[in-house]
Design goal:
single chain; about 425 residues; alpha+beta; seven-stranded mixed β-barrel; globular
Length: about 425
């Protein structure tokens, strides 16, 4: 059974007025950019009522919740030897031993490697990082009840806040998604940069959202529901559980049919309600680099829930959200969305989810939340020694993102005909 969220409207109090978006100058305007760093403000907080968001499986005893609180930006200190630094540069996707300090407690050895594809950078620049707390000692090295953490370097996110805001929208709308916050990393006592810290999508994550976390989970990677894709671990990569592709194959077989027959047959193994919600939120946050907007699809996980014997979609890689203005219906070229559009009742169910997600966006005032996050991270973002772009880009794309959020209902209603 998929647990749904119990959301409370957010009450955010901005402690410092954000820049007026009308004063933001496009980075392509040719005006000079001030890249100096002054008045770093690492203690700025986003003040929100406690219990703003109730993540399934979390509680007051969930020690990891502190990492994802809006109240502060956690700071991590990595110690790595010269030998392991060289090893990581030579083999960036292989784990090396490091120690990790958080809140004055040092853990180690833990495993660390770089991650990413198009956004990948070498470790001596600014890498996205994945930590495996149990790599060298299963059990005792778990940190705050987690098996690992993921730190994204935001190398293709000019706003430096897409992930934190987009993932929140997914969660608030009831879609299983990672918790996200900003975090600061020091390496050998030198500032390495500002990151997005995320839940690693593993069985610990699954246990927060599903009654049974022992099912099979796959990462959809440039594939879709056809025979050639679903049986190949390149396109549907096993991440958790047994390599049981029965559900994937059954959906692929169902989609060879058309109309209501295809919807009904696929629905034996796919939670259409879950998928339509996932598709709706992806459209609202403009996550067009992910399935079903990208064909063949990627930037998502698929979990086979043993309790219901159905597949559920889980987003990841949302750093390119809020960039582009596309029609959220016609842009969705994946097989699932295409088959849904063939059936009026399925298409109308999806449109109903879109309307509900827009209601949630306004209820939690996502635009004001984004403004508050921009204020909170400004000092650390300016101080980031290996930021991948000029500060003018950060300001411009933050303002553009907030403007996009405020206009989503108007833009979407015009595109797909919502009342």
């Amino acid at each position: 059974m998929l647990f749904l969220l119990a959301c409370v409207p957010t009450q955010i109090h901005i402690t410092e007025a954000p820049a007026d978006s009308s004063e933001v100058v496009s980075p392509d305007s040719g005006q000079a950019t001030d890249t100096s760093v002054e008045d770093v403000s690492p203690d700025t907080t986003v003040e929100a009522d406690t219990g703003v968001e109730s993540v399934p499986g979390s509680s007051e005893t969930d020690s990891s919740a502190v990492l994802f609180s809006d109240d502060e930006i956690p700071i991590f200190y990595v110690e790595i030897s010269a030998e392991n630094t060289s090893a990581l540069i030579e083999s960036p996707y292989e784990y090396v031993e490091v120690s990790l300090t958080y809140n004055d407690i040092t853990y180690g050895p833990v495993g660390m490697r770089t991650k990413g594809e198009n956004s990948w950078r070498p470790f001596d620049e600014k890498s996205s990082l994945k930590f495996d707390f149990n790599r060298y000692d299963d059990g005792p090295n778990r940190i705050l009840g987690l098996k690992g953490l993921t730190f994204n370097a935001m190398n293709e996110d000019y706003s430096m806040m897409h992930e934190r805001v987009a993932y929140r929208m997914y969660r608030e709308a009831g879609v299983p998604a990672a918790r996200a916050n900003h975090a600061v990393i020091y390496v050998n006592d030198e500032l390495y940069g500002l990151f997005t810290v995320l839940d690693t999508i593993d069985d610990v994550f699954l246990a927060r959202w599903f009654e049974d976390s022992t099912g099979s989970m796959f990462e959809q990677h440039d594939g879709d529901f056809t025979d050639d894709y679903v049986q190949d671990n390149i396109y549907f990569q096993l991440e958790e559980g047994k390599d049981d592709r029965t559900g994937l194959q059954a959906v692929a077989d169902a989609l060879e049919d058309s109309g209501q027959d295809a919807i009904d047959a696929a629905g034996e193994y796919l939670s259409w309600d879950s998928f339509l919600r996932y598709w709706a939120v992806g459209g609202v946050v403009q996550n067009f680099d992910a399935y079903p907007f990208r064909f063949a699809g990627d930037d998502c996980h698929i979990y086979h829930d043993p309790t219901t014997n159905q597949l559920h979609y889980i987003p990841h890689g949302v750093d390119e959200s809020f960039y582009y203005h596309y029609n959220i219906e016609s842009q969705a070229g994946g097989h699932l969305s295409a088959k849904c559009r063939e059936v009026t009742s399925c298409r109308d169910d999806w449109a109903g989810h879109v309307s509900e997600v827009l209601d949630v966006l306004e209820k939690i005032d996502l635009a004001t939340y984004a403004e508050a996050v921009a204020v909170q991270i400004e000092g650390w973002a300016q101080a980031d020694p290996q930021r991948n772009y000029d500060w003018s880009y950060v300001e411009y794309y933050q303002a553009d993102m907030i403007s996009n959020i405020r206009s989503r209902r108007t833009d979407i209603s015009a595109d797909i005909g919502l009342d």
